[in-house]
Amino acid sequence: MSKPGICYLVGAGPGDLGLVTLRAKECIESADVLVYDALSSAELLRWTKPDCEKIHVGKRARDHAMPQDQINELIVAKTKEGKKVVRLKGGDPMIFGRGGEEAAELVAAGVRFEIVPGISSTIAGPAYAGIPVTHRDHCTQLTIFTGHEDPTKGFSSIDFKQLAKAPGTKVFVMGVSRLREITGAFVENGADPATPVSLTRWATTASQRTITGTLTTIADIAEKTKFASPAVAVIGTVVNEREKLNWFETRPLFGKRIVVTRTREQAGELSKSLRDLGADVIELPTIRIEAPQDRQGFAEMVSGAHEYDWLVFTSPNGVERFFDAFFAAYPDARCLGNPKIAAIGAGTAKKIREYRFGVDLIPEKFVAEGLLDAFKKESIENLTILWIKAEETREIIGDGLAKMGAIVDECIAYRTVPETEDPTGARARLIDDGADLITFTSGSTVDHFFDLGIPWPDGCVAGSIGPITSDVLRKHGTKPAFEATKSDIPGLTAAIVKYFAKG
Known about the structure:
Rossmann fold; alpha/beta; 503 residues; 4 domains; 5-stranded parallel β-sheet; Cobalt-precorrin-4 Transmethylase, domain 1; 5-stranded mixed β-sheet
């Protein structure tokens, strides 16, 4: 008997990936079919499983990839096929998201459904602009309405006379194109023309922008600054709190668009650091990590690792693949014996410690030359060393250790290949929107970025994690604007902040 399908009406939140609920993430990860709008964060699509069918249905003002009645038919049909369907909508599905209509269609069709609320931009947008929609000193009432209706059309389900007289804060969305008519309707119906008004565009994302004015001035300000949707508007004296409470738009990297070229698996740490500092991050992986061509040879080297005096790791990727292979062969960590362990940098050492192994040697400089300098303080003549490495790396470590009298074997744990997939449309976004900075964390990320043939954005600079990466950039005719003093992610992040702080 086939399993009955179910449709989840899921709120994707206002844009900040950190504001997506855990329940929403669970639904996206398990979906057989994802039906989604023009989301503020395309990164949500990366959470889907590989065989998930992803269907974009548009849903922006005047730009619908699929009419609502066809969307209703689609989610019903896919659910009736016995699939787990996720209908993903920006913000909350039940706040001007037509989630109620879609739920009614599912009920009429006799299929199961669940509603997963999301954080609405009507609340989150003002909060990220430093505007509390309720405040003891200003109001005890909140009214939310849609600006999608034209107040001049002769009839409306919105009572502007009642809205104008109602106390408290008013919040509306989907009203930028009718801003002059809406604010005019408030004044005509008795609202104080000097009432403060704010508009926040792309709320909760690094592209957020806020303008303020009054009922009589905000339309002129919006037109002068070419302010466009999507935006959330706030009417009320709570807008005055923004001057004190504006926290999101004052972070050190706010307004800077930064490209991260690391692998998808590794991009998270750098991306999070930059987003926390206010940057608009485009994750555009130029490389991906794959198993070595000689998998059997790798497995045999790992199985014999207990015979070595030293294990040398030069990247977190090597650590992860080595220990995953080791524990696939051995049930007990003690089977590794007692070799000493060296790590080329803090990130590599951190990954080793995640497997509950200590690190005996970390160089002061997180490059191959620094590791060799550190080994000069050790006595390694006639000692055996297993160097866990990528397929294509400089031979400086192996050659340098051999010159010190060590017996070095190479354990090729992985290889770096070009990333061919672009599920979030990052390449098109970089071409269309440009960037302020493109970061590079290895020579291979540099090589494969230029292999993509993407024109270098106007006014954009390159940032390098260390000297080797900088050398590869120069070979491609690009001088790095800065190089991290410490060749790890915290060091690169600090260098980025320092660079932009200089103006």
